[in-house]
Amino acid sequence: MVLMFADTASAARIKDLSSIKGVRTNQLIGFGLVIGLAGTGDS
């Protein structure tokens, strides 16, 4: 089951997924980093 959907995972920009209404039309820029604690992941 997991292998069947492995190719459909992809990255998406936040501005493509969201719509923020306000006074100005600013670009939304950000960075994300996902990490784990040592010794708490898969073994």
UniProtKB/TrEMBL annotation:
Primary location: other
Coiled-coil regions listed in the entry: none
Compartment(s) of residence: Bacterial flagellum basal body
GO MF term (any one): structural molecule activity
Gene Ontology CC entries for this record: bacterial-type flagellum basal body, distal rod, P ring; outer membrane-bounded periplasmic space
Keywords, alphabetical: Signal
GO biological process: bacterial-type flagellum-dependent cell motility
Function: Assembles around the rod to form the L-ring and probably protects the motor/basal body from shearing forces during rotation.
Protein name per its UniProtKB record: Uncharacterized protein
